[in-house]
Each structure stands twice: as C-alpha cells, then as structure tokens.
C-alpha cells in the first residue's frame, strides 16, 4: 500500500470511494509480494499493481464491483489452463488478493496511518480478510509499537503456536491499539503477532480460529507491517560510495554516508543519501549500536579500504550480533592484510566469517555505478538466499521465500 498511498489519500480526503486490491499471500512464482496494492479510482484510473500485469484486468473489474456492492472479497488467482492469459498468472504462481472499498467511512484511520509513515513511526494495520461470519470481514485494528520498543528483536510471528509472540518486554501492554477485529481474544492474538511482524518489517496473512484461537482455522488476518525503512550505512566518502548510496536509496533503504573527513563528507557530493555524517566511522557505528538504531535489517558497506578507518570500524561491526550484511571494499591483498590486522585485534574466525570481502558479486564491474550494482546484488542475494548464479543455469522456483 505504501507505493499507492499518495493517490489513495488524495481520493480519501476528497470524500471519494476507491476500490483497492491487495496481495495478502503468494504461492510459487507469484511476481509481487504480500502488501502490493492496486487502486481503482472513482474516475476509473488504475494505480499500482498486484501482479506485474497478469491479473490486473480481472482485479480492476472486481474492484469496481466491490465498490458498487460495498462488500469486500477475497479472490484467488492462479494459472488457468483454459484462459491463462486472460485472468491467470502465466508464470504459474498463485495470488490471494483482498479487494475492498476505501473511503472515510470504511477506513477513518487512514490519515493518521499516513502521518505515522511520514514520521517513520512503526505501525501495523490488521484486517480480517476471511471469516465464517461475514460480519467480521473487513474489520480493522491499528497497532502502534510502544515508544522505545526495540524493533530489532528476534520476535517471529507464529499463529500456529499456543504462545503469542512479542516485540520486546512491553508488547501487548504499552502499545497503542485502535479498533477491534471482533473479540478480545482475537484482538490480543493479532496485536502480539502484529508487533512481531513489525520487528521483522514483514507483512503477512496469519491464520487463526474464528475467535482468534492460535491452533485453529477459519479466520485469516492480513497484517501490513509499516516499519521504518531499513538502514544502509556507507562508510567512506568516495565516488563508489555515491553510487552505492544512490542504489541503496532506490532499493528503499534509509542511507547514511559517514566519513571523518569533512572536505569529502558533504551533502553536495551525496545527494541521494538521507544523511551525511562527519565522524570517525568506528565511533559513529558504536554510538548507533548503543542507541539501538542498528537492527537485523541494517546493511553496512565499508568502502574506504584504508586500515586506519577500516580496522577499528570492522572491530565494532563484526561484533554486532544482528546485522543483515557487512561488506568491505578492497583488493584481495588488502583483504588478506585486513584479516591479519583484525585477528591481531582479537576477532575470532567465526566473527571474521561474517565479512563479505572483497565486497559484491562477481559481475566484472569496473565503474562506480557497476560496482554499486554488484554490491546491491550481493545484499539482495543475502537477504533472500539467492545463489548469485544466472537463472538460466538454475532450476526450481525463481522468487525466494
């Protein structure tokens, strides 16, 4: 929904009704992830995408019908032997799309949610997409994490377990909850699981019993988890850093460039960075870790290839338990020298094994822009478990879990 929010909010503020289809679950090679949305405006305008073009026509028509009938619908789209190119996914995937009417009456919380997103405040929106009692379908609950909650915890939602998950010691107690799904039991279960999804920055459809029973079936709740953007910290104010910052911003990261040299670390040289910090890299990273601003989604790109900066920085970085990626630029000789220095500093082989160096995948990159693509490719592969091999040389599913 985030990508279509400006248009949705404009229609909402104008008092219009909008049909919105949202992917709540995918199976096999579905092209768009859960949370991807498509709007059909009051003038017939289509905004966004749920499948990259495969089923947009069918969702467009269904959205218009839903607005007219004022009843939400959960629709499954998959490959169709008879008419695959008309309404099916030619890639062989399956999508569950929840289609609803959005206006001031059905979603009065929308403007406040948009304000949370603009301010970077973590907020989850839970919507009942399927239930034996049709009166429950469409009910919504908004969950805002407690102030100071560590969204980098190891909370993992598991709607099939008897014990609810949490996102810190105050989960389910100090969080702010608006709305209700239909019962106190259901609200409590979904509230805790929504906090867990916020910790992961992951949207997902969860299954419960009709009254929120964790080991039951019948109710499906889709949880949009709008966590702050993941962070990319780029160390070294060089031309390669400017290209990496640009690609990182394109991928949706909040990008920080840090260097101890004020003549190089300027906003003018890094227009795509969200912030440029003049500080010793190791000192800045240690302070960010101490302040709780480093989490399991954070990626660190060390590009200075200068021992006086790199070694103290990597001493800090490689001892942080939960980061998504740590990569360091340099030749193989530089890498070997760096490892020797880090061993002398007391780092263990297990800690050193977390370092990706030389940074990036082997694409034969030469220019800063090509190198930035190489770095981004490794980060994506690390995130989704990709091999980095050409897809033509692999078998099985294309899209990672």
Automatic annotation (TrEMBL):
Gene3D superfamilies xref list: NAD(P)-binding Rossmann-like Domain (3.40.50.720)
Residue ranges occupied by any XdhC Rossmann domain in the UniProt entry: 232-379
Residues in XdhC- CoxI domain copies: 11-78
Pfam families: XdhC_C, XdhC_CoxI
Superkingdom, natural source: Bacteria
PANTHER family per the UniProt record, alphabetical: ALDEHYDE OXIDOREDUCTASE MOLYBDENUM COFACTOR ASSEMBLY PROTEIN (PTHR30388), MOLYBDENUM COFACTOR INSERTION CHAPERONE PAOD (PTHR30388:SF4)
UniProt protein name: Xanthine dehydrogenase accessory factor
UniProt source species: Nocardioides daedukensis
